[in-house]
Specification:
It is a single chain. This protein has 1034 residues and is an alpha/beta fold. Helix content is 41%, strand content 14%. Helix 12 links the parallel strand 17 and strand 18.
Amino acid sequence: MLSRKAAYARAFKDLKAWEDARVMHSPTSSAFLHIKSAGVTAVLGPTNTGKTHHAIERMLSFPSGLIGLPLRLLAREVYNRVVARVGANNVALITGEEKIRPPAPAYWVSTVEAMPRDIKVDFLAIDEIQLTADLDRGHIFTDRLLHWRGEQETLLIGAATMAPIIRELFPNAPIFSRPRLSKLSFAGDRKISRLPPRTAIVAFSAEEVYAIAEWIKRQRGGAAVVLGALSPRTRNAQVELFQSGDVDYVVATDAIGMGLNLDVDYVAFASDRKFDGWRNRRLTPAEFGQIAGRAGRHMADGVFGSTGRCPPFDEELIEALEDHRFDAVTLLQWRNSALDFSSLDALLLTLERTPTHLRFTRGPIAIDQITLEAVSHDEATRRNAKSPADVARLWDACQIPDYRKTSPAAHTELVRTIFGFIVRRGKIPAEWMAQQIAGVDRVDGDIDTLSHRLAQVRTWSFISNRSGWLEDAEHWQSRARRVEDSLSDALHERLTQRFVDRRTSVLMRRLRENAMLEAEINAAGDVLVEGQHVGSLQGFRFTPDPGAAGEAAKTLNAAALKALAGEFEARATRVFDAVDDAFALANDGVIRWLGEPLAKITAGAGILSPSCRILADEQLAGAALDKVKQRLDLWLAQHVKKLLGALEVLEKGEGLEGTTRGVAFQIAEELGVLDRTRVAKEIKAFSQEDRGALRKLGVRFGAYHIYLPLLLKPAPRSLAALLWALHHGGLDHVKGLDEVPHLAASGRTSFAADTEIPKGFYRSAGFRVCGERVVRVDILERLADLIRPAIAYRPGTSAGDPPLGAADADGFVVTVAMTSLTGCSGEAFSSILKSLNYVPAQRPGPAITAPLIPAAATESLNSEARAQSSELVASPEPSSQEAVTDSFESKPPQVPKPTGENHALVQESVKEDIDKEVEMIEIWTQQRPVHASSRRPVSSNHPRPPKSAGGAVSTEGQRSSRHDSKQPNGGAGSQRKDKPAFEKRPPRGTETRPPREGKAFAGSSERRDRPPDPNSPFAKLAALKAELEKKGTN
């Protein structure tokens, strides 16, 4: 019996004779098939049977060998395994885009398409022979099955569905079946969120793979992505994420079913349909089995099922997958490999040849044949393809795969260009090749952009690995490989960034290992666990990273709390030992320690005694919590005392009695700003000693408010506003907690009012709502100080120049000083005045029409008149011991006395203004509220005073609008303006005042009709005025 080697030598003397036999014999010849079956052995079975491992071990038992694999990815994996066994110098890797060829390799690892023809090996193996039925690549696998042999042994590896046709084609070939090492069972349909770890989810489009991977990232921390178009470098990096445990899920296309060895426990089908290049169809049961068989490795059982939008599996399919029973392959895709290169037409004709054997069928036209037919219509290409060698070169150019998938026309143009270079120049120009590779040598862009560049560089890698096409092929191979590696690394980085939350995956692995986690907290409060950012620790509250969701958020929280177990107690100790300056109370009511929130203030028993609620996770408890609470309560009490201590003194009222103590308590309850109208009667009844007692405590009696000027600073007012809000709905229900204190701190004296903010809140912040504006209370008092002298001045009666804003009678006009003080003008300022009971009236200007009395004219009067006149305008200075002055008790400020020249100029300007066009001006007068309790019948003997020129009721000679008119020693504040200064008023309390309804005010008819005393100073002033007017008319 001849050995296998002798049988090969006898049948074919050498390789050339074997090639001749390929051309001469038809694949339908039974004798031919019988001869080629010598030395053929088949090892068939389902996945996870160790078939590929057996082939590698069998190859290494021979001096030389070649193994053809279906994928470049798998070829690289097997190459690495063989290199690990025999060394890199003894192993060659041959793929379409990559060649690693040492000087004298003993073993060859190749893709089926790239299996070298010019070598002889003792052992030859072809993996996944069931792909002979594939519509796209089946004819290539069929050619290798029929014609490629090892010198001593040829091993066919594939699914058990190939057994019948192997027996028919190779009757003498032994077939060995290998049972699956583990059990495969069906788990039903599950949601993606319920899939267990170590699961592979299979989809059949890149878009669906990306969508599932992004969802898993949000829920479970991330997934590895495996696509058939990935480079081996990228695919290996992605698989390593899964194998190392960085991620627990892998989302892949059906490329996962071709020999990729992953530690997968569960395979979930997210779809059951795929596009096979021709149509969108449902997977065959055998294809389901090829993919589902990836579940379970070695002796570990595997589970498969459906998920997502995949329809449920029927019982028949489930049984077939669990028992590995599928329909046998009955037809192999075939294309004539005995080609005639004598002419282009002869080549096309031989490619059209059809098989005659019943088990072969002519498959769909492949891309290389489509490209050949397209370029054959180009006249320039036909002229260049004259000789058989040129036709063979054209066919080699058509073998360039269409990795780019742009369009058939673009691929045809590329082939025509390459063929033109080879035929005309013999080589592809280096400058052209450099330009093509430089165009893709960039690592910017997203996943799709990088994938497209990788497809392009795969084309240039394939071209650089074709023998004889480039002058310095090794240089271009090396350069193309470098570009591919850089693009692969960039693509892996983009895939990881998009589909993997590395921090979650790292922490999940560490938690599974039950290892001690190292936590680090930086100055910004960011928490790093095992170098991964998991969230932030603010005070005693941990906030997970908001970017995490679902299971990822739970993982981050669990890892952080485990790592931060000791940090809470350490922080509690630091808080307890901290100085007062380390704490601060913000406008939102949060107490912060070195900028970190610790507690929020709450309402206490009294408005000046707030409490606080600790903001902490449940990990802060026991003694640590008590220490923090004790320290914050102490600081809060000191803080209130520091800023509002004067109110605490008023609230206690020590040294105060009766009504004074009651008013002091009300001031404290109103947080230092009390509306004067609420205590008007009480204040009216105060003695000077009562007022002095409150002034010593910092109280000022203003026109509109009783307040403490020292507490109008931003810090006390912000605290007061918080305390007010605590007792009026809470901090979460009072609007303006941040806006109003911020405006106050910025120095604004007034701003637009917000109707949704309570007036009481404004008052607690030191402001009062006045019409459309909110005005600071001390600014209102200063505004009153500007208006008061203007109202007190009586043109024609009061001597000297009028103060700013003075007008006839008791009116006034708005001045720049007034608007500047409040920071507003126009309608906004008018609304302030109206809210203060001032009413406007329009009349022709000027504001003062009565003749002015110059101060110089009074110098000739007797000393008694001067003394009385000075008493009318003198204003006593407040005591230096008083903290603030009582604006109601102060006299109108002294008006500077004009000189004679100034008076003459004023008279002249008044005369000139008469000739000018009359201008309407706005005169403001005070509208005094009339209380029902004070109304009395009006006597017919005293008619209503006449109206002024502006239409308002004349109030000349009436009392000024001061609420508190009592003055010591009968001061000028209570003096009637129309009463002669030298007429002494009887001592207070010695005269009997008539009823109010019978009291005639200044300007009454009774006093007008009575002739003046010719010896009075006013009679002499009137005479002097008449003489001056006479001279002026002359």
